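Incident log, structure service

09:12 report received: a user says their structure output differs between two submissions of the same chain.
09:20 pulled the input from the user's history:
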Amino acid sequence: MDDELARLRERRMQEMLAATEAPPAPAAAVLTATGQNLEALTRTYPYLAVDCWAPWCGPCRRVGPVVEALSAEFAGRIAFAKLNTDEHPQVARRYGISAIPTILLFRSGGLAGQITGAYPIDAMRAELLRRFGLR
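09:34 re-ran on a clean worker, output below:
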């Protein structure tokens, strides 16, 4: 009887300890930008990188995983979004995008720059930090 009570106490103690541990942080999600929500996104996130792409674009497909990885790495510091220029050509015209992939960089609601081309992850990280003035 004492052994069974000790096992029950031990199991309950483990359950209580597990309940007090912080849950794992959710993975950073890449947002979806549209012509309708882009302005709201720029106001919501102090640092926002918007990947302008199209499904037929080979270099865009290479940048997609880079954006996803950087989104997870910079979670809480830089927000990332993807905007399909085929579906939202008015955004491409508004920002003078003539080649994709182009990453639009917004700081405090305003356009802070653009990165055009399929950069590897280390170069993209360095460029984001430089353009946003972050360390």
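09:41 both user submissions now match this output. Likely a transient worker issue. Closing.
09:42 reviewer note: The CA atoms of residues 95 and 119 lie 20 Å apart. Helices lie at 2-20, 38-44, 58-73, 89-94, 121-132.
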